[in-house]
Amino acid sequence: MSPLLRKPVAVTGKVHDITVETAKTEKSPDWAYVGFALHHLKSGDEVAEAAGDREVIVVLVEGKAHITGAGQNWGELGERMSVFDRTPPHCLYLPDGVDWRAVATTDCVIAVCTAPGHGGHEARIIGPAGITTTPRGKGTNTRYINAIAMEERDVADSLLVTEVFTPDGHWSSYPPHRHDEDNYPDMTYLEETYYHRINPATGFGIQRVFTDDLSLDETLSVYDGDVVLVPKGHHPCAASYGHEMYYLNVMAGPKRKWRFQNHPDFDWIAKRDS
């Protein structure tokens, strides 16, 4: 199995724990920014963590939880019980240097997105208010976006976080594009993780991670609950016919800007559809 593909390590509790240290492999030796954890909690279960030197965006992927953090009681967060409801998620931003705790009030799935924090933003609820589900693309490249924390929202020091819903049989993160050079404003260097969900859960999707020179070229079958690491290169994915796909993107790098370049062999598609 490719080291860029991470399977859930448990059924309940912390099912993913991707850190800067565990993300480093022969395919991703320079990983330095993005962290991603996922908790499957039963009602009454709890998780408590210290942010340390990393900022955090907590996403209530499914279900509800009572959350405290940064010295505040944020109350019960969460609304959608299935991620495939496509409604904007409840999300909480927490700066570096704070503690936080979540107690599940229903069965729930909580994503914990992390990146280096610099103390530049206060703790705040950043969703669902301020997030609008928006279509992007044309034809079988149509998908639906919940921009949780992209650069137009000044809500974080480093993190860029987005949800994408891809109908069955459609492509996504397409045309193939890359953001692996620190060359702003032409391109920014951003590591990225994809947390995938598939509906029905017995299906699968495809994600390819490849560089222009094909020194990295991995085509991955992704199943419900898998995470894909994108250290560099292009990273399109597709939902198989009969199975819709959701993914939660987490990006971070030296600059909180998303500037990418399409693969030269596919850029005509972006120009045609613009």
Question: Concise description?
Answer:
The protein has 274 residues and is mainly beta.
The CATH architecture assignment turns out to be: Sandwich
N-to-C SSE string, H for helix and E for strand = EEHEEEEEEEEEEEEEEEEEEEEEEEH
Weakly predicted, low-confidence segments: none
- Structural Rg: 18 Å
- DSSP helix fraction: under 10%
Span of the ends, CA to CA = 37 Å
The CATH topology comes to: Jelly Rolls
* The CATH homologous superfamily: Jelly Rolls
Spatial arrangement of strands, main beta sheet: 1-22-19-24-14-13-12
Structural class based on helices, strands and sheet pairing: mainly beta
User: Briefly, what CATH class?
Assistant: Mainly Beta
| Count of domain modules | 1
Q: How much of the polypeptide forms β-strand, as a percent range?
A: over 45%
**How many β-strand runs?**
25
